[in-house]
Structure formats: C-alpha cells, structure tokens
Design brief:
By secondary structure, the protein is an alpha/beta fold. It is 48% helix and 20% strand. The strands form 3 sheets. It has a 5-stranded parallel beta sheet with strand order 2-1-3-4-5, sandwiched between helices. Strands 6-8-9-7-12 form a 5-stranded mixed beta sheet, with helices on both faces. A two-stranded antiparallel ribbon has the order 10-11. Helix 5 runs antiparallel to helix 6 and helix 7 crosses helix 8. The chain is globular. The N and C termini lie far apart (51 Å). GO terms for molecular function: cyclic-guanylate-specific phosphodiesterase activity. Pfam families: GGDEF. This is Diguanylate cyclase.
Length: 310
C-alpha cells in the first residue's frame, strides 16, 4: 500500500502516447494509482506536488532525458523514492547507456507485462519500506543496529532479514531475486603487512566501490572480515553474469593508495538465484558463499588473480 493506506501512486513519464496509455492500463489493473505524463520537463514540478511512491521513466536516445530526471529525483528525494527506466528490449544502445550512466537505477522492458511491472515495483517498495521501518526503530533505540561499524554498510543480521522478506515476496507474488557473495582477495596478508587500520581502510574503500556499482534497489552488506554480500531484488539468474561482470570491471579500474603505492583490489564473486536455489536466508547466503569458493578454486587452477597486487 502507499501513503495513508491508499494504493501506491506511480508517476509514469513516457513521451509516446500509445506506450503511455498501455503502461497506465497495465499498472491500473495491477492496483496502482497512475499519474501519466508525456513531458520530462514537467516531471520535477509534478513530482514535488504529488510525491509519488515510485517513478517510471522512459529512456531513449538521443538525449536520454530520463537519466537527467532520475538524477534530480534522487537528489530531491534523497533516494527514498524508487525509480525505474522503461527501455526498449532490443535497444542495446539505450540499455548500455542506462547501465553506465543511469545512476544505478533499475531497468524494465518497455514491453513488459503488467505482472512484471508490478513485481518490479512491489519489490522495490517493499524493500524500501522494510529499510525505513528498521531505520526508524534504530533511531528510537528499539531495534538492533543495522550497520557494520567499519564500512557503514548493512550488517549480516539485517541482510538476512531482508533476504527473508524477498523470499516471502517471491513465494507470494512470484518472481525472482539473486544473492551475490564477494570477497576481497589477499586481505589477511594485506592486514598482516600494513596493519589492521590500513586493512579496514581498504574495506571501507571496497564498500564504497560496491555501493557505487549496484542499483538503488539493491542492498549491500558486510558479512565479516573481507566478505560482502549483495541482495538484488527482481534480478533473474540470466541477468547475474552481467551484474558480476560490471562489479568485476569496476574493481579492476579501482585504485587504493598505501604508503605511496597503488594497490589493485582483487574481488572474488559467487551468486545464486531464487527459485533455482531455495532454503532459509542463511542457507541461501551459504550457497552464494559456496559458489564464491568454487570460483576462487577455479581461478587458482587456471592461474587467475586471487590476491591484492601493488
């Protein structure tokens, strides 16, 4: 539900009148209150008036006005309003542009069914609501700490709670999600050589890089020592390789300086997807870590990077 128990309000900005009407009808049938708009320049004034629960923006060449609007929306709402791009499924240029320049906003095909659109929106709204409820409890001192004290990311107990929410959502409404485990290679040796303080700085640096790589709807947590995990709502198994490639590429270009030397961070990754993998939140996380270990062993066999390099 949206504000005050009303149906969630979705602002849809789509220059194509026919596509706008189709999206409005699909979301209306799925129980959303839709505010349709054909002009991107009117999006911000209308957003500030109606304060929607979510926003859908049609992204297309040549100007990609949707990306500029998404940037302003995130600034105004401080990231509290989920945003999705509507992209033509066969427009690879638009797809790549939104992945590279789109402010980590999630994408959905323009031709998606009402069920797919609804699942995407419900996933983001439920996750955002859960985080806000937990944060409110933390501020009033009635909930356990949500964040890792070193990196500022979510901690393991809270991520397990979010995974539980995603499992229940997927079981009730259908759909999928993925879970990625990540490990900074060679961290123990790095800590031994440079000390705990410098090793923790490396973890903070790694956390920042991860946070800059994922989408707004995703959740990043520190599992302990040099291990992290990413919860990707609405992400099917076939989309995971692209996510892993994006994260790996971001870490390959990242640099961390220690005593005047540049350190390249090496990251090991493993992932599982629901419903291909099922079980309790702890079991799903364990399965992702197992995939990470398999990947690490494979890299060792073929001579791939498993440590930090200076």
């Amino acid at each position: 539900m949206g504000k005050a128990g009303q149906p969630p309000t979705v602002l849809v900005v789509e220059p194509r009148a026919e596509d706008l009407e189709r999206t409005r009808t699909l979301l209306g049938e799925a129980g959303f209150r839709v505010v349709p708009l054909t002009r991107f320049d009117a999006a911000m004034p209308l957003f500030e008036v109606i304060r929607p629960d979510a926003v859908l923006l049609a992204a297309q060449a040549p100007d990609y006005a949707a990306v500029q609007v998404a940037r302003r929306l995130r600034q105004v709402s401080r990231g509290t309003v989920p945003v999705l791009y509507l992209v033509e499924p066969h427009d690879l240029e638009a797809y790549r542009y939104c992945l590279d320049k789109g402010q980590c906003v999630d994408l959905v095909p323009r031709t998606a069914s009402g069920a797919e659109l609804a699942l995407k929106l419900h996933a983001q709204l439920k996750l955002k609501a859960a985080v806000m409820r937990a944060a409110a409890g933390e501020e009033s001192g009635t909930a356990l700490a949500l964040h890792d004290p070193v990196t500022g990311l979510y901690n393991k107990p809270f991520l397990l709670a979010l995974i539980g929410l995603e499992v229940r959502r997927a079981e009730r409404y259908g759909g999928t999600f993925s879970l990625v485990a990540a490990e900074v290679g060679g961290w123990s040796a790095f800590r031994k050589e440079y000390g705990r303080g410098m090793a923790e700085r490396l973890l903070v640096y790694s956390a920042v890089v991860l946070g800059q790589t994922v989408r707004e709807a995703d959740a990043v947590a520190r599992m302990g020592d040099n291990q992290f995990a990413l919860l990707l709502p609405g992400t099917p198994a076939e989309s995971v390789p692209e996510v892993l490639a994006r994260v790996s590429a971001r870490f390959e270009t990242a640099r961390f300086q220690v005593e005047g030397k540049v350190v390249r961070t090496a990251l090991e990754l493993g992932a599982v997807s629901f419903p291909d993998a099922v079980g309790t939140p702890a079991q799903l996380l364990g399965a992702a870590l197992q995939e990470l270990r398999r990947t690490r062993e494979f890299r060792r066999m073929v001579g791939g990077p498993t440590r930090l390099s200076v």
